[in-house]
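hey can u check if this looks right to u? its 395 residues, i copy pasted from the old doc so theres a chance i mangled smth
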Amino acid sequence: MPDAPALVSRALREVPPDRLAEAADRAIRSALGALRTDVFIADYRISGLWPVLDPQLPDAGFLTCQGVAQRCFSSQQPVLDTGDDGRCRVYLPLTVWGERVGVLLVELPAAPVAGAVAVARDVAGEVAVALRAADRGTDRYQRVRRRERLSMAAEMQWDLLPGRSVDQGSFLLAGQLDPAYTVGGDHFDWSVDGDRLTVTVLNGTGTGLPAAMLTAVAVNAMRNARRSGGGLVEQAELASDTLYYQHRGARHVATLLLEVDTGSGRVRAVDAGSPHVLRVRGGVVTPIALEQQLPLGMFAETRYDVQEFELVPGDRLFVVSDGVYAADPSGQEAYGERAMARAMRSTRLQPATEAVGTVMRELHAYHADSDLRDDAVVVCLDWHGARGRGDGCGQ
């Protein structure tokens, strides 16, 4: 059994990407003596987990699996569910560097012996890495992930994302786009390089495909500068010049660029007409006051300045687009005036990966569950300090 992860990994490498779930099922049955397995994948809204091997699972069985799988997915811990017949369903998180892919179900004939769950979790890690890589070679898992058809703009935006969460010990970062299936120009991007975490959040202008194309140009320009060794100023200036010379100032993108020293908590920022950044510390939500500079692409040869602020261990940062902060359905006050802060405070005991969903759900509730009138982005960063996680975030 200790060799199970290696056996599963070898089996996954030997099959085409669209057959990973079947290969994992065969290998896990053999290595762990499992009766059956399944892979559950999170949808774009992270509103449910959906089976790959048994998509026709009867409603009653699916709802039972869904509830337990969701607990595993949310907690990122194994969950054991023993039935009256003595069989034990083990639900294991499928996670790659903090990116939550879904949940692996392994059904065993009896409760696992000591150490078996740890081995099964390592097996799940191998499956998660393979699934993440397989997305480049097959559409099968993308089809499971979508519960309705994506607009062309949304297709571009989701493909452009680096992921939806990343965990590096000293920090946990997560983001969410909404409306998931029709999002246009709002976006987020990040990159980890040693102790430097770069995060950009874009408040796109316009709707549909033109907005998505504008955002794609801005994101790739910033990536080009960053990957060439450029800092925040170079990233902002290259993106701004690229957009200006393409649209002559007629189209521009409000953007916040952050560079976090994950060892010290020092944050450098370029506020280009930005989304809003708020800090949660000691249960208090405080806007971070930054000097707003011109949006990217508004004028030729725009130059940008860097500002700085500090984080302390346990701090939580939220970055939200105008579609969140300024939402004012039915003539109500803007969501960002008071309701958003209440939603953010309510996430105190949740990890960043759950907190982004809470703020989005509260935004939808504020709209009385009607469709959002604007794209919305929520990004949440928990900084635990150089030694890793503390006792909680934003407490």
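DSSP finds eleven helices and 16 strands in the chain.
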